Amino acid sequence: MYDRPLRLTARTALLTLGFINLLWSLALLWASFGLPAVLTVAVLLDYMITRFAHRLRRQRMD
Q1: Cα–Cα separations (whole angstroms), residue 32 to 3, 25, 28, 43
Q2: What are the two backbone dihedrals, phi and then psi, of residue 51, each rounded to the nearest 5 degrees?
Q3: Is residue 18 part of a domain?
């Protein structure tokens, strides 16, 4: 069915474990402080990731 064997790379493992850690951290925040705290953290994370992506893009262009 597949032309090449599926394999787990380090990047895939890192992203999977990072997502799992983010998920339980946000669930803990939600249980402790409610939805507004989770939304605030999510917006801050999105902002930081976007800034990081822009900086990487600028470095590659130089």
Answers
A1: 48, 11, 6, 18
A2: -60, -40
A3: no
In-domain check, residue 46: yes
Is 52 a domain residue? yes
pLDDT tens, residue by residue, 7-17: 778 888 899 99
- pTM score: 0.71
Q: Are 37 and 29 in contact (CB under 8 A)?
A: yes
Query: What residues make up the domain containing 57?
Result: 32-62
Distances (CA, A) of 24 to 3, 10, 19, 46: 36, 21, 9, 17
Among 58, 17, 20, 25, residue whose Cα is nearest residue 44: 25
Note the pLDDT of residue 2.
61
